[in-house]
Design a protein that fits this description.
By secondary structure, this protein is an alpha+beta fold. Among the domains are: 1-143, CorA soluble domain-like (Beta Polymerase, domain 2, 2-Layer Sandwich), CATH 3.30.460; 272-333, Methane Monooxygenase Hydroxylase, Chain G, domain 1 (Up-down Bundle). 58% of the residues lie in helices and 17% in strands. The chain is built from 11 helices and 7 strands. The longest helix has 64 residues, at 233-296.
């Protein structure tokens, strides 16, 4: 088979097509053109694996014509911003999964649309997404597993998508831990509080991308719903477990962020209350000399102690004594 593949002409890759090949018994037979996909997919024991990235409408229509794909699925695949789902069209299936990457501290989302049926798997990528060349290379390096055909290819793609969620979650988790530690030492700045809010919002968007895959993986585990070989169902169960783990990590981080956000607000309010108490205490202390000075500043001819030689010293001493008593009192109350 390898000698036959070596003599076949190399197929030029056209725009929008990342890779297109046909596999037999777990080994790559040759690259193929899109217009050959239908004939190869109908051959017994052959599997066509096509990878597309932001294809044109014309290219999608050619793929549709070759593999007899449903028009509604093609319409969805032509546009991004689809909700993660699994839809069945006769013996063919259409899966939408969201991908996620970190860029500059923010999560960038993309989409992967997968057409899956007897003899073929077609993946369509939109937006931010890691290339599936790694998936293809890993699968081709293990013919024993790739021999399972389109079921294994579908599993490999979904497993790769789910595994790429974890670095995003772990990176956010490290940043959340750092913010939490700073919160225990001091009141967070306005910029750090804004970052807390943005992280919580980003995690909510990530959760909306991850949670629907739980249902997709559950359906892939049941032969009565999706035509997956029984021997492959444990692999999809493993993907399901990974998705649930990602979901639990996201929920845990969102709870920590909610607590940190509330704690930062409470700490800020506590700091404001402390400042208010200090200002009130000093205002009360300063009220004593202000009141005495105001009384003696009135222009009356007959006032007590005006002619007394020690009157000034007595008044000043009284002011200092009263202010001292107020200061000691406020210190004991914790206001100063």
């Amino acid at each position: 088979m390898d000698s036959i593949a070596a003599t076949l002409p190399e197929i030029a890759v056209e725009p929008g097509v990342v890779a297109a090949g046909v596999y037999v018994d777990g080994r790559r037979l040759r690259d193929i053109a899109i217009d050959e996909a239908g004939a190869w997919s109908r051959k017994e024991g052959h599997v066509v694996w096509i990878g597309l990235k932001e294809p044109s409408a014309a290219l999608l229509r050619r793929v549709q014509a070759q593999l007899d794909l449903h028009p509604l699925a093609i319409e969805d695949a032509a546009k991004a911003h689809q909700y993660p789902k699994l839809e069945r069209y006769g013996d063919a299936f259409f899966i939408v999964a969201r991908t996620a990457q970190l860029s500059g501290g923010d999560i960038i989302f993309g989409e992967t649309h997968i057409f899956f049926g007897k003899g073929y798997v077609v993946s369509v990528r939109h937006g931010a997404s890691t290339s599936y060349a790694t998936v293809r290379k890993r699968a081709e390096s293990c013919p024993v597993l790739l021999r399972r055909g389109e079921d294994y290819i579908l599993y490999a793609i979904l497993d790769f998508i789910v595994d790429n969620y974890m670095p995003v979650v772990e990176s956010i988790g490290e940043e959340v831990d750092g913010l939490e530690e700073r919160l225990l030492r001091k009141v967070l700045s306005e910029g750090e509080i804004n970052r807390l809010y943005r992280l919580r919002r980003e995690l909510l968007r990530l959760r909306k991308a991850v949670v629907p895959l739980v249902d997709v993986c559950q359906r892939l585990q049941h032969a009565d719903d999706v035509l997956i070989e029984a021997s492959m169902q444990p692999l999809f169960r493993d993907v399901h477990d990974h998705v649930r783990r990602v979901q639990e990590e996201i929920d845990s981080l969102r709870e920590v962020l909610a607590f940190a956000f509330e704690a930062s607000l409470m700490a800020g309010q506590s700091q404001q209350n402390a400042i208010t108490r200090k200002l009130a205490a000093w205002a009360a202390i300063l009220a004593v000399p202000t009141a005495v000075a105001g009384i003696y500043g009135m222009n009356f001819e007959h006032m007590p102690e005006l002619k007394w030689a020690y009157g000034y010293y007595v008044v000043i001493g009284g002011i200092v004594a009263l202010c001292g008593l107020l200061y000691i009192r406020f210190r004991r109350l914790g206001w100063l």
